[in-house]
Specification:
The complex is a heterodimer of chains A (221) and B (192). By secondary structure, chain A is mainly α. Chain A has eight helices and no strands. In chain A, 71% of the residues lie in helices and 0% in strands. Chain A is elongated. The C terminus of chain A is likely disordered. Chain B is 73% helix and 0% strand. Chain B has nine helices and no strands. Chain B starts with 5 loop residues before the first helix and ends in a 5-residue tail after the last helix. The mean pLDDT of chain B is 82. Classes of the chains: A mainly alpha (221), B mainly alpha (192). Chains A and B meet through helix 1 of A and helix 2, helix 3, helix 4 and helix 8 of B.
């Protein structure tokens, strides 16, 4: 045995304090999602115009779009918790892809329908900046709290975990946006949603990479 | 990695029990576990790293990572999968770092040596006295400065420095190499 490795093992054993095992990833994901649901429920009850939302929710396409975004968010958050552990299959990253495809399909259909009925005027900026700000500003606190929990596992591939988690929080933010979006979406709105989601994923991934480079991802628990 | 034979399964159960005890603070079980997994880790590292010292660096990195993330092991799941996943990841990280380093830099073994020629040593001491080295070290990026301080000034081993800084052994080597190259460039006015 190499002397250095021998000394390392002795030191690690001498320092081995009891540790708290992480709870199962599905349970941790469920607890985070429940906490978000509770806060979101209060925000919706306090600040959204539910009458307008109820009227808009008569449109089954909106409901489908919301279900697709919500399922994308839930599956991506679950996948991020699973991927944060060393021995979980990378295939977990594929879990949110089917609902993401459904989200893109429903959004694409809504774009097409809007284009047919409104034409090129749909490219007006309208309320898109509101959507953009909403998705980003909701994603930041959601993303930070999610990352605080995910980093407890000290993921070996933090950029991948952050990207999938970023998709989750952006999808949840896009779903919540519908409660605070008292108007029909335009083509530009949908494009802005996509850009905002892409920004959240890219920033989360780059931030995780940067923090790994500084060694913070490898800090002791 | 499938646990194919009864021997593999029995070994996995034993390692899993040792790790569960280690998570509860049993240091004897933990030391025994780390010693028992060593041949397994060395075999995995040797598959991807021909140079024995590089393979040993990876093994030490894996041991440090196991120590840091031991709270993520679930005793209801196979231990060997958990350990092999960490070993694979650290091995890939080492290969990537090596690829980046070799693509961007020229290795200079002399950078790690002290000066054998007394005249060179005197020259270095004169420069030190002139106060050039301190500001030069202070001007290094944080990661390089930290690696230099741990390995060269405090003279910790690579494993000790890795544990102290939370950085991998390969990363520390690269940082020291870059730090020495930057210092040499500064102190010789940009000469290589």
């Amino acid at each position: 045995m190499s002397g250095a490795t021998e000394r390392l093992i002795e030191r690690l054993a001498a320092e081995a304090e009891p540790v708290h095992r992480l709870r199962p990833p599905a349970l941790r994901a469920a607890l985070w999602l429940l906490a978000v649901a509770a806060v979101a429920g209060m925000a919706i009850a306090g600040f959204s115009d539910l009458d307008v939302f109820t009227r808009r929710a008569q449109d089954p396409k909106l409901v489908l779009d919301m279900i697709a975004t919500l399922v994308t968010g839930i599956t991506a958050v679950l996948a991020a918790f699973e991927l944060s552990l060393p021995d979980r299959a990378r295939a977990w990253a594929l879990l949110p892809l089917p609902p993401l495809a459904a989200w893109i399909a429903t959004s694409g259909y809504n774009c097409y329908r809007h284009w047919i009925t409104v034409g090129p005027d749909g490219w007006e900026l309208g309320e898109s900046t509101h959507c953009f700000r909403f998705i980003l500003s909701v994603s930041v606190p959601l993303g930070l709290t999610l990352w605080l929990l995910l980093r407890r596992a000290q993921p070996l591939a933090p950029a991948r975990v952050a990207a999938v988690g970023g998709l989750g929080v952006a999808a949840i933010a896009a779903c919540l946006l519908q409660f605070f979006h008292p108007f029909d979406v335009t083509v530009m709105d949908l494009s802005v949603h996509a850009v905002a989601v892409a920004i959240v994923i890219a920033v989360a991934s780059l931030w995780a990479r940067w923090s790994q480079g500084r060694g913070s991802a490898a800090a002791p628990p | 990695m499938a646990l194919e034979s009864d021997h593999d399964l029995a070994r996995d159960r034993e390692w899993s029990a040792l790790m569960a005890a280690a998570q509860d603070g049993d240091r004897v079980a933990y030391e025994r576990l780390l010693r028992e997994v060593l041949p397994f880790l060395r075999a995995l590292a040797a598959r991807q790293h021909r140079a024995p010292d590089r393979a040993e660096d990876v093994v030490q990195d894996v041991l440090l990572t196991v120590h840091r993330v031991r709270h993520t092991y679930d005793p209801a799941r196979p231990f060997t999968h958990w350990l092999a996943a960490i070993a694979r990841r650290r091995s890939i990280d080492a290969l990537r770092r090596r690829g980046r380093t070799e693509a961007a830099e020229v290795s200079d073994e002399r950078a790690y040596e002290t000066f054998a020629d007394p005249r060179a040593k005197q020259e270095m001491e004169v420069r030190d006295r002139a106060g050039g080295l301190g500001p030069a070290i202070a001007s290094l990026p944080r990661g390089q400065r930290e690696a230099l301080e741990l390995l060269k000034l405090r003279q910790l081993s690579l494993a000790e420095a890795s544990q102290a800084s939370g950085k991998s052994i390969a990363s520390l080597k690269v940082s020291v190499h870059r730090a020495i190259r930057a210092l040499r460039a500064q102190l010789t006015g940009g000469e290589r």
